[in-house]
Amino acid sequence: MASNEDTQPVAIGPQPSQVTDTERLQKLNTDLENIPLFMTHLPTDDTNPAVEALKSLISEEAPEDMAQKFKTEGNTSFHRKRYDQAVAHYTHALSFDHDNNELKVSLFTNRAAANLELHNYARVLEDCKSALQIKSNTPKALFRAARACIMVGKFDEADECCEWALRLDPESKELRKMQDDVKEARRALEVREKEQEKRENARLEKREMVQQAIAIRSGLTFDLSPDNMKKRDLYAWEVSEHCVELDPESAHLLWPVVFLYPESKESDFVQQFDEATSLYDMLATVLAQPPPWDNQQRPAYTVDSVDTYFLARPLGGMEKDERLVK
Fold first, then answer.
1. How far is CA 242 from CA 125, 208, 214, 272, 282, in A?
2. For residue 175, what are the contacts with CB-CB under 8 A and spacing of at least 6?
3. How many whole angstroms separate alpha carbon 156 and alpha carbon 166?
4. Which of 190, 199, 248, 267 gives 20 to 30 Å between its CA and that of 155?
């Protein structure tokens, strides 16, 4: 008989795996690489039956059939107003090489229609041009090209497209309406141009009046340096959003003025300071009520308690010659 000291303990129940987590993860990744859905790259040989089966399914369909399939998907997306998806499907369909020119023309005109909805007018014109290069008598391509030309203001080209299309389809009501749309868009542009010209003439007239008013007032000078002019065709008093103006009734200049309160780091802006108004009267108006940032019961800023300074530049002087005047 063996002694108790010679008896070895026997393990009972499931034993812990000797495979580490890292090894398990590596094995899982290896297994997934053999499944087409999870492959990060295609195998270089033909030993994977699943990949070969998928390849055979793809190769069974002719390029023209594949193009037709994606065209149908594009049409579905277009009718659902998913124009981005429609463009993607038509583009994919155009990538297949086949000899069916009617299908190619249809794909180009359909993609042009989707891009019209997306306001991609340059791409619309490119696709219409491609369709017409394949088949010159394509009313849809001409119609959509005319619409894109209207949207970008090319009215002569739009007229030409309409006339060309009407020679192919003289009874088309859509093309007749398109011609009317071209005329209306041209008239609208002419109206806008006249209004813009009228506004520009009024601006120039106002500029001339302000220039003359400033010219007869001695001591007024402006910084005409390129930085101040901001490289724009403006007079010095026009470089700001708030410009000096001329009151047509009183013939007084109305100046934009900023009041700064350095002690409180606050400011006030007066858009039109009549040159005939004294600084005292203007401050009396500005400080008639205590500013929100001042003591409301015992305001420190009143017209009689503040010291006022302005920045003055001697006639003919430069910016370095400016001085504060009390």
1. 44, 17, 17, 9, 18
2. 139, 143, 162, 165, 166, 169
3. 15
4. 199
